[in-house]
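Researcher: Next entry: Chorismate synthase (Peptoniphilus indolicus ATCC 29427).
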Amino acid sequence: MKILKNWEVNMSSSFGKNIVVTIFGESHGHYIGVVIDGLPIGTQIDMEKLNEFMSRRAPGKNRFGTKRKERDLPKFVAGVQDGKIVANTICAIIENSDQRSSDYEQFKDTPRPSHADYVAYVKYGTEMDMRGSGSFSGRLTAPLCIAGGIAKQILEKKGIEVQSHISSIGGIRDVEIDYAKPDMKALKECEKKEIPVISEEVSEKIKQCIEKIRKEENSIGAEIECFATGVPIGLGEPNYDSFDAVLAKLVFSVPAVRGFSFGAGFDAVSMTGREHNDEYELNDGVKTTTNNAGGVVGGITNGMPIVFKTAIKPTASIGLSQRSFSISENVEKDLEIKGRHDPCIGIRILPVIESVCALTILDFMEN
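Model: Predicted structure:
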């Protein structure tokens, strides 16, 4: 078995051209955090609003998620005074306070199916801290949400709003939203709900579904639909710096993402050109009557709402027995995973998806 060395083990923890975000830490380390370069000096951060945004992602907030409890309150250690950005570089940390590293000892030798345990061992050897999945953990999306929460506040002052909802879980679908004229007020209300969907009837069905999944010690995936309104025309470049390509890269960097599509997405394969094309109308400026393109044409934003869907896989850690193998003994063996895990990651991932959307928009606007 080849263990990769030297230059082959360099890891990328940064993204962005004008607003550069660097995430650091490990799931069970003392701290996780973020360094952000390029945010406008003098920007006032609404800390209460930022903490509310962070709480939507935080674990242990209701019975439909993991029982791990972390408040995830960011502490700014550089570049921010009294809530105001006072330097080109700012840094914030979050203390990890509720780890159970002993739950992960067995995975050093017996890798978990659909986790990074085995590929991390092959690529990095035994030196990487893989407790709680280490640098691969969804825990690292918490500092990402610090950057995304600030980006959302900056965009709101520019008249740009980013919101999302769960469009489906286990085949249970929320109400459809008009892509050309999304109801952002209804989407905003989802922030306050245990299950972030618009329909109360759908919410109750999803709760029953998740309770059933939890009792079976299993997990289930979700589809997230995200919208951004007020985005100006002209963000992005053709080909490799297109708006949709850059956003897709960041979305796929979020752990658990398995699919991504703009506008009509994969439904476009069964549509005719007549059905899919977004015809123009002159209505308080140039608009399109539909928005199957999801707000991006030729890699450039066209002034219509940004609309995209993200497929989230079922939580890989489940209580049911699964087939694995022993690295040291090179024999197959059964694995039962203990610990505290989400029956559905999708419930807590919405602010993460909103964060990468907001950061992509802001990065292009600061060009």
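Model: Note for the record: Confidence is low (pLDDT under 50) at residues 1-9.
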